[in-house]
Design brief:
Elements: E1 10-20, E2 23-28, E3 33-37, E4 43-45, E5 60-65, E6 71-76, E7 79-89, E8 92-96, E9 102-106, E10 119-127, E11 132-140
Parallel strand pairs: 4-6, 9-11
Antiparallel strand pairs: 1-2, 1-5, 2-3, 5-6, 7-8, 7-10, 8-9, 10-11
């Protein structure tokens, strides 16, 4: 059992589908839809969301489902990446994460164009089936040297 979960609890992760009539539909990464019952005790957090109605279609969510099968908590997660810009071509940048994995940044939504070698935190939305981060906020981090 994953850390933090009690007997009978489980997680559902994916994109928010529909919300209504006491249900939240989550489109899992494998393309299947999962309908999770909600009630007045279902809490929503993350990315300035306070209620199920605040979640937009397509928002990335992680749902903790209680042993009774009802959503206890819905966490909205914004796409983000931290790392060093290694290449910049127009509105596209390549970012290498501390783990060594790379991600493409679409910078068309922000005025900043970080130079290669700059350490950044990029936040936004997932695009191109998760291979690109469409940046809505970009912060350069101070570095030595």
């Amino acid at each position: 059992r994953p850390a933090g979960l009690r007997d009978g609890e489980h997680l559902v992760a994916g994109a928010r589908g529909s919300v209504g009539d006491g249900n939240l539909v989550v489109r899992k990464d494998n393309g299947t839809d999962v309908t999770v019952p909600t009630d007045d005790g279902t809490r929503v957090a993350g990315d300035r969301n306070r209620s199920l109605g605040d979640l937009a279609p397509g928002d990335r969510v992680i749902v903790r489902v209680g042993a009774d099968g009802t959503a206890d908590r819905v966490l909205a997660v914004r796409a983000h990446a931290t790392g060093t810009v290694t290449e910049l071509t127009g509105d596209r940048a390549t970012l290498i994460r501390p783990s060594g994995l790379t991600v493409t940044l679409d910078l068309s939504g922000v005025p900043a164009r970080p130079a290669p070698g700059t350490l950044v935190i990029a936040t936004g939305t997932s695009a191109d089936n998760g291979t690109t981060l469409k940046v809505e906020e970009l912060r350069e981090l101070p570095t030595l040297g």
